[in-house]
């Protein structure tokens, strides 16, 4: 099925508005073809840089622009050459007009930003942008065809040249190309484009992203000879052994001229990665006789290629196909080319296979978003994304939810990423009712199929595209059934994917959204004829991506579970300043718009500027393709597992370290590690005279680094890492009181004061806490520790209702009632003082006991016992204590998991070690403030001032901890997405949280899912200990912790 083309006078004769007619999606638009460009030489064609052809001319730049709020107010005659636009403002193309001073950006998740009455658009507000510019055609294009190309315009446009109507187009995410040869004139030509913010096509563009408008992708002219290779398709078909391949090239040659063309000759050359010919220099050739004006020859040419290098995301081996078109006398008419790969994608035995291997989709969803340029993606931005993905073991991108910029596909071919290429179809706001969904409306059939057809025709030659996706959240029905049938007839070389089809026959892959682990296990329990690949999972909104390792433990244990794509890649925020000049990233509602879905667009693994978050660090570890398992650690025996499908581990260097506490005591390098894909073997490390010492912990750390430079990383880059811990019990810290100096105590009705040689601690008996702690004249504690059961809600917490459901815990520790506070002396010599404090937690009918033991060196052992006995209490966000230290204690060291923030359901990528930071840098700058900065499995954490004086907290055995300039209360929002970090005011203290446990961050979704039960804290009885120890400059902290 081809796009409909109408005569130029159709727009005037048709009484129905084009932008409200789903039967009209293009007028005079050229049929879609693969991304191509004529070149002036064989060498230029071999380089395959479309922008470097002499037959390419960019129209990007400054255009005249006029904006109105509704179609009736637009300047209807502005396309005429004599229309004066000298007073108009200017706008940059490509670009969205909302970020150039016109109109307001709107973020919506699923609701339409206009009145819903398909296919009609409200008349009172539907902004129109009128664009004008002039250009000249290069002199050496004379006698050639000239095509005008728009790579992306949202949402509908009329185009005029020199006062004449050129055509109409909608479908914002695919090119519109017009043959303007007959409308050109010598000298300056006037190009006019009228863009409507919304059209009938907008009902199919209801994606969860910023709703923006304008000419947002490249605009250019392309020149070709009158007899021109209009399109070509490269089809490879590996044999049953996936060794040799058929190569089929289908070429469409069209005569755009007014005269018949005599015999034409077509030659095809195949070049390898070094630009050497594969086989004969002219691998294939043919001749065709007379070609009449407007006629088109379809020429299939086929050959066999013996054992070509295969393309995969792991090894993106590319070949260059060059097509040479000659006239009857042998004169060169044009060269065209394409980079392509030999790759086979299929469903076989219920699995998705690439080149015969059941790959795993370690994917992300990616919106096209630039924090400065909005929906315009530069080469630099796209390459930055790809490099970050490759460096973090991501191998797949779902182009959510529309075809991306053409350049994206070329780059993914080169760097190596699998693509699930998705059509620009989402009608989420209509709903999924079969009687209402556009997927079941016959009048919308053409719009559905055209968008899918045009995507397939444009992207068919890219080896990176391994799956076609028919759209997203657009209901299901006859239109998708028809579209699936069309794809299978047109391109049998790739499977078809559509989430709303469920397990119906018009999807080749079962691809649910946000299915839980139980759902995956149920699917895998029976033999299936299709794989399950999650089209969206691990919703990465704010402090999220918990449970990821749990998902992959299940996925890697079942053959028909083949991974999924995390939602999503980048936080869709824009830089902005508040009234005080403080910078923040804006999300929905920050532009004064009256309709928004707030910060629901902030779901990325990276921040808007592509800064890496702790979430991405976790993804890198979980997605890595090399694993080390213990066999006999005392003998240095481990098992290496190669999870790659096409890569031998001889491409990597293995370095290892044997670590005692925080010291490397042995290390080595293995640069001759050979292990075939999907294999494992035991490796014995040459440990020398290794004996464990009581009281120390031991770890084996492994790093796998690439041996040679890659396009996405330099030699030595660490692509995988592992940490194995030796089975050893760490002694709980014990202090011999007999070796300590005596203490002095003062017991009054209000306080208990304990004094030592160089410290003084004041316990407030009325408040039940330490009110001050001085060491060597320096104040260590301002107040605390106090019971703490609250955490600042994360986006996931807001989504599942935690702030309201668990509100009783917010003040449970603050509203305690002191029942008793007394000092206990156990012997005649006062070098140990014990203080017992009993509380009632009235809001939860809970009992809380704090037992303090103060030693003569200033150490304080704290044992907290807690019991919640009230029935029907909700889960507890955290169990711990909070305290405040003076702000001067800005230096932080800890021995535990790090260096990045981590939680009990997101710590796989955070190894145990000794780390240092500042309080400022312990803060994770999420776009919307929430719980952050926690580190788990803390053996000890120490805060010090610039003079080296400080305090250490030692877990007995482990804690989770955070040290921030913000309190939990200051980070607690009234509702989700109502604050920015720029709204926060630093407290005058360091807020130190020492927790027995904090519940996980979750991540199955952000609108109802709680953390998994094993990462929750349910009411019950709990007891834990830790010790506070003062220190000064030069103290060996590791020794002090013992």
Describe this structure in words.
The protein has 1042 residues and is mainly beta. It folds into five domains: 10-30 and 61-217, Jelly Rolls (Sandwich), CATH 2.60.120; 227-340, Immunoglobulins (Immunoglobulin-like, Sandwich); 353-621, TIM Barrel; 625-725, Immunoglobulins (Immunoglobulin-like, Sandwich), CATH 2.60.40.10; 743-1040, Distorted Sandwich (Beta-galactosidase, Chain A, domain 5). The strands form 13 sheets. Strands 46, 47, 48, 49, 50, 51, 52, 53, 54, 55, 56 and 57 form a twelve-stranded antiparallel beta sheet that branches. Strands 1-10-9-12-6-3-4 form a seven-stranded antiparallel beta sheet, with no helix packed on it. Helix 5 (445-459) runs parallel beside helix 6 (478-490). Mean pLDDT is 96; it is low at 1-14.
Q: How many independent structural domains?
A: 5
Secondary structure class reads mainly beta
Secondary structure tally: strands: 57
CATH architecture of the largest domain: Distorted Sandwich
Helix fraction? 10-25%
**How many individual helices?**
13
Largest sheet: 12 strands, antiparallel
Low-confidence stretches: 1-14
State the name of the first-level CATH class of the largest domain. Answer: Mainly Beta
N- to C-terminal separation?
76 Å
Radius of gyration based on Cα positions: 33 Å
Mean pLDDT: 96
Question: What are the defining features of this structure?
Answer:
disordered N terminus; 13 helices; twelve-stranded antiparallel beta sheet; single chain; 57 strands; 5 domains; mainly beta; 1042 residues; seven-stranded antiparallel beta sheet
Task: Set out the fold topology.
Blueprint: H1 10-13, E1 26-27, H2 42-47, E2 56-58, E3 61-68, E4 89-93, E5 106-108, E6 128-136, E7 145-150, E8 153-154, E9 156-161, E10 164-170, E11 176-179, E12 188-196, E13 209-211, E14 214-215, E15 219-224, E16 227-238, E17 245-255, E18 264-271, E19 284-288, E20 296-305, E21 319-326, E22 332-340, E23 345-348, E24 351-354, E25 361-365, H3 379-391, E26 396-398, H4 406-415, E27 418-422, H5 445-459, E28 465-469, H6 478-490, E29 496-497, H7 517-524, E30 532-537, H8 548-555, E31 561-566, E32 574-577, E33 583-586, H9 614-623, E34 626-632, E35 637-642, E36 652-660, E37 663-670, E38 680-684, E39 698-706, E40 718-725, E41 744-747, E42 751-755, E43 759-764, E44 769-775, E45 778-781, E46 783-788, H10 795-800, H11 802-805, E47 816-824, E48 832-841, E49 846-855, E50 860-868, E51 878-886, E52 891-898, E53 911-918, H12 919-922, E54 935-944, E55 950-964, E56 989-998, E57 1021-1031, H13 1037-1040
Parallel strand pairs: 25-26, 25-31, 26-27, 27-28, 28-29, 30-31
Antiparallel strand pairs: 1-10, 2-15, 3-4, 3-6, 5-13, 6-12, 7-11, 7-15, 8-14, 9-10, 9-12, 16-17, 17-20, 18-19, 18-21, 21-22, 23-24, 32-33, 34-35, 35-38, 36-37, 36-39, 39-40, 41-42, 42-43, 43-44, 44-45, 46-51, 47-48, 48-49, 49-50, 50-57, 51-56, 52-53, 52-54, 54-55, 55-56, 55-57
């Amino acid at each position: 099925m081809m796009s409909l083309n109408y005569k130029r006078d159709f727009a005037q004769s048709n009484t129905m508005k084009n932008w409200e007619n789903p039967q009209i999606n293009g007028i005079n638009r050229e049929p879609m073809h693969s991304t191509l460009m004529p070149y002036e030489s064989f060498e230029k064609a071999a380089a395959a840089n479309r922008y470097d052809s002499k037959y390419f001319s960019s129209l990007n730049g400054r255009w005249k622009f006029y904006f109105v709020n509704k179609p009736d107010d637009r300047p209807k005659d502005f396309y005429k050459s004599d229309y004066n636009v000298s007073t108009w403002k200017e706008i940059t193309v490509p670009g969205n007009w909302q970020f150039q001073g016109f109109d307001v950006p709107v973020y919506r998740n699923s609701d339409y930003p206009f009145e819903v009455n398909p296919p009609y658009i409200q008349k009172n507000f539907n902004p129109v942008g009128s664009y004008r510019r002039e250009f000249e055609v290069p002199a050496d294009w004379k006698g050639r065809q000239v095509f005008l190309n728009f790579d992306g315009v949202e949402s509908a446009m009329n185009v005029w040249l020199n006062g004449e109507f050129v055509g109409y187009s909608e479908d914002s995410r695919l090119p519109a190309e017009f043959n303007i040869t007959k409308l050109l004139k010598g000298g300056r030509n006037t190009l006019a484009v009228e863009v409507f913010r919304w059209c009938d096509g907008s009902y199919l563009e209801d994606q969860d992203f910023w709703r923006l408008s304008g000419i947002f992708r490249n605009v250019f002219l392309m020149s070709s000879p009158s007899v021109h290779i209009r399109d070509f398709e490269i089809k490879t078909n590996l044999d049953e052994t996936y060794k040799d391949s058929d190569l089929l090239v289908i070429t469409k040659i069209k005569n755009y001229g007014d005269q018949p063309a005599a015999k034409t000759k077509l030659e095809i050359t195949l070049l390898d990665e070094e630009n050497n010919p594969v086989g004969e220099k002219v691998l294939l050739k043919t001749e065709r006789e007379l070609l009449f004006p407007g006629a088109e020859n379809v020429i299939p040419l086929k050959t066999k290629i013996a054992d070509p290098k295969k393309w995969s995301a792991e090894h993106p081996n590319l070949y260059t196909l060059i097509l040479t078109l000659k006239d009857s006398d042998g004169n060169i008419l044009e060269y065209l080319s394409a980079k392509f790969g030999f790759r086979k994608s299929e469903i076989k035995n219920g699995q998705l296979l690439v080149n015969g291997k059941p790959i795993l989709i370690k994917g992300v969803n990616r919106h096209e978003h630039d924090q400065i340029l909005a929906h315009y993606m530069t080469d630099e931005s796209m390459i930055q994304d790809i490099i970050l993905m490759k460096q973090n073991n991501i191998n797949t991108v779902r182009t959510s939810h529309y075809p991306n910029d053409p350049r994206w596909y070329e780059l993914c071919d080169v760097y190596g990423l699998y693509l699930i290429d998705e059509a620009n179809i989402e009608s989420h706001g209509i709903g999924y009712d079969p009687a209402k969904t556009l997927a079941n409306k016959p009048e919308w059939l053409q719009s559905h199929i055209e968008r899918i057809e045009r995507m397939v025709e444009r992207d068919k030659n890219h080896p990176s595209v391994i799956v076609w996706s028919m759209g997203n959240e657009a209901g299901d029905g006859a239109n998708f059934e028809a579209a699936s049938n069309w794809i299978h007839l047109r391109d049998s070389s790739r499977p078809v994917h559509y989430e709303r089809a469920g397990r119906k026959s018009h999807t080749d892959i079962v691809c649910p959204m946000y299915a839980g682990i139980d759902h995956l296990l149920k699917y895998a329990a029976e033999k299936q004829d299709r794989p399950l690949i999650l089209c969206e999972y691990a919703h990465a909104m704010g402090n999220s991506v918990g449970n990821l390792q749990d998902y992959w433990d299940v996925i890697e244990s079942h053959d028909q579970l083949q991974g999924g794509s995390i939602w999503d890649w980048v936080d869709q925020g824009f830089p902005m300043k508040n009234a005080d000049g403080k910078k923040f990233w804006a999300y929905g509602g920050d532009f004064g718009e009256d309709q928004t879905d707030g910060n629901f667009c902030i779901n990325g693994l990276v921040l808007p500027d592509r800064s890496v978050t702790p979430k991405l660090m976790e993804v890198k570890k979980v997605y890595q393709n090399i694993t080390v398992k213990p066999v006999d650690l005392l003998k240095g025996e481990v098992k290496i597992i190669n999870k790659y499908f096409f890569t031998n581990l001889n491409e990597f260097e293995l370095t290892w370290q044997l670590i005692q506490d925080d010291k490397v005591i042995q290390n080595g390098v293995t640069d001759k590690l050979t292990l075939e894909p999907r294999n494992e073997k035991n490796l014995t490390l040459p440990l020398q005279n290794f004996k464990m010492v009581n009281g120390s912990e031991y770890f084996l750390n492994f790093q796998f680094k690439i041996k040679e430079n890659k396009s996405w990383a330099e030699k030595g880059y660490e692509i995988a890492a592992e940490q194995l811990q030796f089975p050893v019990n760490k002694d709980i810290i014990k202090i011999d009181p007999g070796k300590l100096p005596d203490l002095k105590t003062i017991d009054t009705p209000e306080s208990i004061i304990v004094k030592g040689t160089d410290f003084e601690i004041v316990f407030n008996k009325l408040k039940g806490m330490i009110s001050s702690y001085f060491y060597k004249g320096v104040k260590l504690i301002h107040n605390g520790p106090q019971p703490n059961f609250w955490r600042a809600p994360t986006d996931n917490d807001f989504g599942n209702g935690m702030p309201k459901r668990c509100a009783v815990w917010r003040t449970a520790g603050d509203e305690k009632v002191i029942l008793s506070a007394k000092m206990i002396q156990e012997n005649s010599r006062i070098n140990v003082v014990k203080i017992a404090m009993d509380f009632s937690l009235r809001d939860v009918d809970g009992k809380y006991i704090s037992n303090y033991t103060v030693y003569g060196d200033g150490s304080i052992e704290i044992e907290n016992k807690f019991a919640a006995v009230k029935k029907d209490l909700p889960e507890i966000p955290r169990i711990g204590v909070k305290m405040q230290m003076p702000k001067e204690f800005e230096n932080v060291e800890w021995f535990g998991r790090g260096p990045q923030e981590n939680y009990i359901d997101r710590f796989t990528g955070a190894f145990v070690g000794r780390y240092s930071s500042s309080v400022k840098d312990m803060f994770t700058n999420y776009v919307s403030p929430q719980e952050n900065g926690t580190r788990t499995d803390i053996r000890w954490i120490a805060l010090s001032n610039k003079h080296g004086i400080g305090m250490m907290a030692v877990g007995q055995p482990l804690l989770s901890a955070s040290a921030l300039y913000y309190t939990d209360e200051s980070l607690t929002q009234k509702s989700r997405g109502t604050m920015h970090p720029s709204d926060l005011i630093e407290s005058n203290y360091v807020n130190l949280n020492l927790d027995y446990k904090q519940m996980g961050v979750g991540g199955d979704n952000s609108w109802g899912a709680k953390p998994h039960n094993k990462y929750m804290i349910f009411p019950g009885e709990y007891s834990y200990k830790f010790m506070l120890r003062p220190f000064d400059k030069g103290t060996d902290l590791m020794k002090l912790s013992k």
